[in-house]
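ok trying again, last paste got cut off:
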Amino acid sequence: ISKYSVLKKDKFCVLFSPTWGQSSLASRMGDEILNLLSKKTDWDIIFRPHPQSLLVEKDMINRFQEKYKDSNITFDFDTDNMKSLSSADIMITDFSGITFEFSFLFEKPVIFSVQNKNEDIYEASWLDKPTWKNDILKSIGTEVTKENVMNLISIIEQASSKTDEIKKAKDLLWQKQNEGAKNITEFLINKQKEVA
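nice, full thing came through this time. structure:
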């Protein structure tokens, strides 16, 4: 991370980094968001779609590239996401795991959207309550919805890093650091004894 954290920047930088699929922010509000951001010519905008989007949503990505080719929007398709993450002052995303990379590593503000997320296609769709991930997003970020997306620029300008909340979430997620292999091994050995 240190080699990226010294990157020089002249402008405020917004990273738009959604996941992929029909529930993603790119599919639901991508054009609206990019259009609004492209009007802030004094900002640098990085659009970094999920790698899977490059395979299954090529038409959408190509359309965005064509429409915003002469704008302040840079398209990042690099396999390494650290340059974009470290360059950004704020990130707009949905329920992508990149939210936690950005907020936990850099402790910077996140704007997210989980509105109209189709839970049926995700691993935890059978649970009775929202996953930790969905709950924690609301404490570490600011939500953008169809109803407030037209206010995105002011939402960005007013966003502040929720450093205390981010630190609490990190502590909850990263418990017992450097003990994972030992704890998992002990659990599996005990489980094997139970079922044997």
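cool. The CA atoms of residues 20 and 52 lie 6 Å apart. Residues 180-195 form the longest helix (16 residues).
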